Amino acid sequence: METSSQEINTYQLEERRYPPPPEFAARANAQRDIYDRDFDEFWETEGRERVAWFEPFTKLYEWEPPYAKWYLGGKLNVAWNCLDKHVEAGRGDQVAYYWEGEPDGDRRALTYSDLLREVTKLANALKSLGVGKGTPVGIYMGMVPEAPVAMLACARLGAPHTVIFGGFSADSLAGRLHDMECEVLITQDEAWRRGTTVPLKRVADEAVGESPTVQNVVVLQRTGNDVPMTEGRDHWWHELATDESECPAEPMDSEDLLYLLYTSGTTAKPKGIVHTTGGYLVGAASTHYYIFDLKRDEDVYWCAADVGWVTGHSYIVYGPLCNGATSVMYEGTPDYPDKDRWWEIIERYGVTILYTAPTAIRSHMKWGPEHAQKHDLSTLRLLGSVGEPINPEAWIWYHEHIGGERCPIVDTWWQTETGMIMITPLPGITTTKPGSATKPFPGVDVAVFNEEGAEVGPGGGGYLVLRKPWPAMLRGLYKEDERYRETYWSKYPNVYLAGDGARIDEDGDFWLLGRVDDVMNVSGHRISTIEVESALVDHKEVAEAAVAARFDATTGQAIVAFVTLKGGAEGSVEKLEELRNHVAIKIGAIAKPANIVFTPELPKTRSGKIMRRLLRDVAENRPLGDTTTLADPTVVDELRSREAEEQSKED
Ligand code: PRX
How many CB atoms lie within 10 A of CB 577? Predict the structure, then answer.
């Protein structure tokens, strides 16, 4: 009964409508006619307006499915667009980042001129280590201004980077450094997180030990604690990056590689998503300009993501800086030293635009609105959400308690692969509905297809697809052409399969329904079931493992692992902790299962295939689907009771 009344509630909340406030609409960067613009005209104009070119492009795009090229013939430099462009226009004194460290009082403001100087110094330093156009560089850092500086220094030299989220383990880091054949790694001694230090350099040392291509490591001093330095290989940032003499920005072709970002797919091996220069920058900057309605001389914009994810790349670094925004960057957790830290930051800097994830909103909801009420949040004028479907309750809480019922909310759907926001309200135009990402961005062709590949109209549901190329789209998977074709382009010819389920309502608004593949979404982080399974079976005592996700009120999904130990051994609390830690060592703490159910057997078909669908049903506590193909139907009953036991222990 309880579930059904909750469903009715959710349904009623979804029915609410929020038209844009008239004052907001009147001044909005995007006005209604934006939806009437022709595809080619829109992207041509954006290409010229958002980005400065050393040499203009001669052709808008070329589409040879499944590969696209954009702004052909154009030459540009991303760092130049993010820095020099503004300084040369006399805007060097504008703050680019207000940075707030986690420890009390640790604050810096970096203007565009400051940032240009820091980038120049690091670029010169990297050059002295032999980095030039095409040299792959790894970046493993926390949320310090030097992380964007490192990315921009690479972009300035034309050296492609890969940023590895600071929460990833040595194994994950090594895998990425190895795959991209990075020659240099940029890291820091330690990072601050919830009052303690994260040993980035120590993890980096372990990873570099397994990454023979890495010859030099540049280490930023952040906490100042002692860390081992390897003579000849490791260099302190502050000692190496001292040369302020001009470092020319390398003219790059539109289609030159800007970065790789590894993300989870449906196998154990992460995919290296390829992003190039011109189209990516146009896509990131134009979406940032219209969706966040950026007024660069008035707004203080805060994207509370981590630079290690694509949101950080497109909407902390490249989009906002290309648009000349003033941003806030925060190093630590939202609950340190108290649960009002975010709201204190908003009040201190007068933040006008906040972009975050539903999981964060739900944490704040759980902590209660009193923390936000202690602070003046009246400067806020626009809120954003990204990373997972936002439940209507969280949407409304965000609207009321953070947005003071006056701020439009943009629920933005996109992916590491898309590089830029694809489905979103435009805040001065769209009437929003709690839980719906609403409409495709102008110049983006989104549809929902049924199994057979027919387009589903209003009222229907199915697979979310993208039918036309877009400027910031991935240019493939690094060194994996077959996998690229297979993953995104094999279900429907010449149409990009996003991997998400979606429905369209009677107004033509899109509602995202979560992943349709073996990818989980925990706190907005993408994790593959198979990656976690591989990490578990890597443990010497594990015979078999299968992983499924269950609903979690805060993190969206939580990982449940079903594990069979070797030799029929019984599980224990100690073993459970050991296995969770093993996953943290193999992947990172974000991938630790919330529960582990030890079981003598996993449900398998007669041909020996693990029935994941059934495990999902067990994990979600749903009635079981078809069990007739099971080799041994008693296995699931046993699993059920074991999972119930686990749950009751947890409660
Ligand atoms: O399932 C969708 C979900 O996050 C996936 C992409 O994850 P990632 O590449 O890590 O990028 C996250 C940040 C862009 C999508 O396939 N997702 C992202 N945004 C939304 C979303 N699901 C529903 N609504 C969203 N606004």
Answer: 12
Q: Determine the residue of 310, 311, 415 to mutate for testing ligand 1's pocket, defined as the one with the most ligand atoms within 8 A of the Cβ atom.
A: 415
- Domain residue ranges of the chain, discontinuous segments joined by +: 5-501, 523-650
Q: Do domains 5-501 and 523-650 have the same CATH topology?
A: no
Q: What architecture (CATH level 2) is domain 523-650? A: 2-Layer Sandwich (3.30)
Q: Which residues line ligand 1 (CB under 6 A)?
A: 263, 310-311, 386-389, 411-416, 437, 498-500, 512, 515, 521, 526
395 phi and psi, to 5 degrees?
Answer: -55, -50
DSSP helix/strand/coil, 43: helix
- Give the CATH superfamily of 5-501: ANL, N-terminal domain (3.40.50.12780)
Q: CA 232, CA 229: separation in Å to the nearest integer?
A: 9
* CA-proximal residue: ligand 1, atom 13 (nearest): 387
Residue 445 CA: distances (Å) to CA of 29, 101, 441, 464: 21, 40, 8, 11
Q: Is the peptide bond before 270 cis (omega within 30 degrees of 0)?
A: no
Give me the average pLDDT of each 10-residue run along the chain (651 residues).
Answer: 52 92 98 98 98 98 98 98 98 98 97 98 98 98 98 99 97 97 98 97 98 98 98 98 98 98 88 98 99 98 98 98 98 97 98 97 96 98 96 96 98 98 98 98 98 95 97 98 98 97 96 91 90 93 92 93 92 95 95 93 81 85 76 80 73 54
